[in-house]
Structure formats: structure tokens, C-alpha cells
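user: At home tonight, take the chain set out below, taking as long as you need, and be ready to discuss the fold:
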Amino acid sequence: MRKITSDVYIENKYPAVYLGLIVNRGETLLVDCPIRLEDVRSWLNQATDLGKPRYTALLDHHPDRVIGARDLRMPLVGHQVTSQIMALKSDSFKGSAHPIGAETDRLKRVTGVSRAMPNLTFSDEMTIRMGDVRIEFWHRPGPTEGSIWVVFKEQGVIFLGDTVTVAEPPFIGDADIDAWLDTLDDLRSVEDQSFQLISSRDGLIDREEINTMARFLRKIRVRLERLGEIEELNSEIESIAGELLDDYSLSGSRKERARLRLRVGLEDLYQRFFDVEIE
């Protein structure tokens, strides 16, 4: 676990996402959750060494960050839309049933997913006082409709979720591209430019990565607009996924999983963009 300020830690030893931990006066707030229950127990032990776990923030409904939260016994903080989306999902999850290029694609059937639904929710902003500090939660849609940031102003840290990814492309199947670009504009305009920015997929990131992310999203929007309603859709989407993948230095199984993530995401976006179904 890496200490980045006096009260903030990040951890990347578990698959899929960087986890966060905010500590104050014997209490802790956890940001996101490991996937496997044995990793959840290990993560809770790490947190408990620093203070009593009081809350876990779930930055959106992506299965890589919520599946493991079904075993947590504390308030789960999230956006109200995230809670609504998860309420519509089955109580069981099998990654291979609808693979999206996520770490959770590898999971066999798990149950109890409804227990991972956020139960402390908000619409625009919310503040929790923990010990003698204030931790803010901001709704910043884009990667999903219910994406949020955890903002710890007193120590200059923002947990961004999947707002910015660097090493690999994000899953875009639940995205609102225009809202995502607006959120990146918000990130550029954060008053204190000394904030440390933490991506859920890459840990600490540089501000220049914000512009790289915006270029990636604009490229997706342009490619989708050019597609129109064409007959050879599958081959065109495969071609776009390959083109987008050229922006990343990936190889082997990691590259193929990213290709799948892009292809499935593009298909989902296309269906919503043109209000059609892909057979």
C-alpha cells in the first residue's frame, strides 16, 4: 500500500482497480473494492490496521469494482443512478454470460450481487464528516450515468474512477460521451491545480492525460457518427476497435481483452446512438 499524503493511501495489489483509503482519527473510508472475497477480507484487514472501516465508496456500477462489495457490512456510498441500475440487475453474476473485457469476465457464477447496491446515495453532491475532516462526493457522469468522484480537499486528492484511463481503454458501453467530455472540462478547471488525481485503473496520473483522454473520446464520437446505419456493421466496428487500440502499447491476452472491451462497448454505444439492435 502506498501512502500519498498523511491520510491517503492507494493499493494496486488486487486485480482490476486501484483501491483508495482515507484515514482520520481511527476511522477509514474505502474507495472501491476488490473482486474476490478472499481479497476483500485481505483489504479490510489492511484498512483495519489503520482504523475502523466506516464507509466504502463505489465510484460507479462497473462489475470490477462492485462485485466484491456484496460481502461488506458497512454503508456503501454511491450515486442514486448507480443504485437504481444495480437494483435492476440479477442477484447472480456470471462473467462469461456477457463478457465485456473486464477482470470479472473470468468469474464463475456468484450470488448476492444485490447486497453490493449503494445504500447511502445522493444526486449532485454530498459531504460526509469523518473524524475532524470533510470528504466530498461529486456526481461526474460520463463513463456511466452514475459515475462519481471522491474529493478530499484538505489533502488535495481526487479519486476519479474511470474518468481518465491511461494504460488501457476503458469500457465505453455505458458511456455518455458528451457528458464525459464535459466532466473532463470540469477536471481541467479544478481550482487548485496541485490536486493529486487518482485513476481507478492507473493510480496517480498527470494532468496531460486529461487531454489524451478527451482526444480518445472525440475520436469515438466521430467514428460513430460516420458509421450511420450500415449493413456491414460488425466488420466496421471491429475495424474501429482495432484503430482505437493502436493508441495503446498492449500485447498478448491483455491486448485481446482490450479489443473485446472496445468492440462490445462500441456495439452498445451504437445501439443507443442510433436506437437500433445489433443481432
User: Anything to note?
Assistant: The first strand starts at residue 2 and ends at 3. The chain is about 35% helix and 25% strand. The two ends are 45 Å apart (CA to CA). The chain has one domain: 2-207.
